[in-house]
């Protein structure tokens, strides 16, 4: 399968804790993106990390990329109930196609 | 305006019906996408239009027929669907650059149409 694998599949934490999710592919990855999806809604772009970057920050988000291991991680610090959602990584494949990861379902308990 | 709109939000149709899903964006994006998403699964690419021309068809059954009337609109015509086609159908748009190139563009997604085939 061309899908990226994400772990954990599901994560439940208390508000204020940090949440870490990982994404890995069997094929080479570059320009990796992370998206958030609230229940039954469309995906929202969170952050893009390019192939020549190893780490990137955006607000409470920290993303790392290891192209040699074909993997990326997303850290959400000081989580809030509003962060409850599914999170997907995505990497380009060909001209217009993105290969999405299997997703991590995050639940933040108030 | 950074919004992609989709209509209808919900659709219930029988297996003999013909219906259409609509998607619209006014961001000047020249690449538009249809995805199908089952519960607790990632989106699966169905079609990509670039500059109003079909660029990718991911071997989608002919009961799904896409159309791009102009640079802002994307339709998905549905006919003789099966119950297993029930899913969330997502439209997205982006700049049409090479996604794996130095300028990799984010996709903007609409809220989706929840389709139920009975």
Provide a quick synopsis of the model.
The complex is a heterodimer of chains A (110) and B (118). Chain A is mostly beta strands and 110 residues long.
Based on CA atoms alone, the radius of gyration of chain B comes out at 14 Å
Biggest sheet descriptor of chain B:
7 strands, mixed
The number of helical elements of chain A comes to 0
Mean model confidence by pLDDT of chain A? 93
Oligomeric status of the shown chains? heterodimer
Shape of chain B: globular
Order of helices and strands of chain A: EEEEEEEEEEE
Any low-confidence stretches of chain A, pLDDT <50, length ≥5? none
Mean pLDDT of chain B: 91
Largest sheet of chain A: 6 strands, mixed
Shape of chain A: globular
Low-pLDDT runs of 5+ residues of chain B are none
- Terminal residue distance of chain B: 36 Å
Helical proportion of chain B? under 10%
Written as H for each helix and E for each strand, in order along the chain, the element string of chain B is EEEEEEEEEEE
List its salient traits:
A: about 110 residues; globular; B: about 120 residues; mainly beta; 7-stranded mixed sheet; about 55% strand
Which helices and strands appear, and what pairs or packs with what?
The complex is a heterodimer of chains A (110) and B (118).
Chain A: E1 5-7, E2 10-14, E3 19-24, E4 32-37, E5 43-49, E6 55-58, E7 61-66, E8 71-76, E9 85-93, E10 97-100, E11 104-109
Parallel strand pairs in A: 2-11
Antiparallel strand pairs in A: 1-3, 3-8, 4-5, 4-9, 6-7, 7-8, 9-10, 9-11
Chain B: E1 4-7, E2 10-13, E3 18-25, E4 31-37, E5 44-50, E6 53-57, E7 64-70, E8 73-79, E9 87-94, E10 108-109, E11 113-117
Parallel strand pairs in B: 2-11
Antiparallel strand pairs in B: 1-3, 3-8, 4-5, 4-9, 5-6, 7-8, 9-10, 9-11
Task: Describe the 3D structure.
The complex is a heterodimer of chains A (110) and B (118). Helices cover 0% and strands 56% of the residues of chain A. With 110 residues, chain A is mostly beta strands. In chain A, strands 2, 4, 5, 9, 10 and 11 form a six-stranded mixed β-sheet that branches. Chain B starts with a strand and ends with a strand. Helix content of chain B is 0%, strand content 54%. Chain B has strands at residues 4-7, 10-13, 18-25, 31-37, 44-50, 53-57, 64-70, 73-79, 87-94, 108-109, 113-117. Chain B is built from no helices and eleven strands. By secondary structure, chain B is mostly beta strands. In chain B, strands 2, 4, 5, 6, 9, 10 and 11 form a seven-stranded mixed β-sheet that branches. Chain B has a four-stranded antiparallel β-sheet with strand order 1-3-8-7, with no helix packed on it. Chain A binds chain B through residues 3, 30-31, 33, 35, 40-45, 48, 50, 86, 88, 92-98, 100-103, 105, and chain B through 4, 6, 31, 33, 40-43, 45, 48, 50, 55-56, 88, 90, 92, 96, 98-100, 102, 104, 106-112, 114.
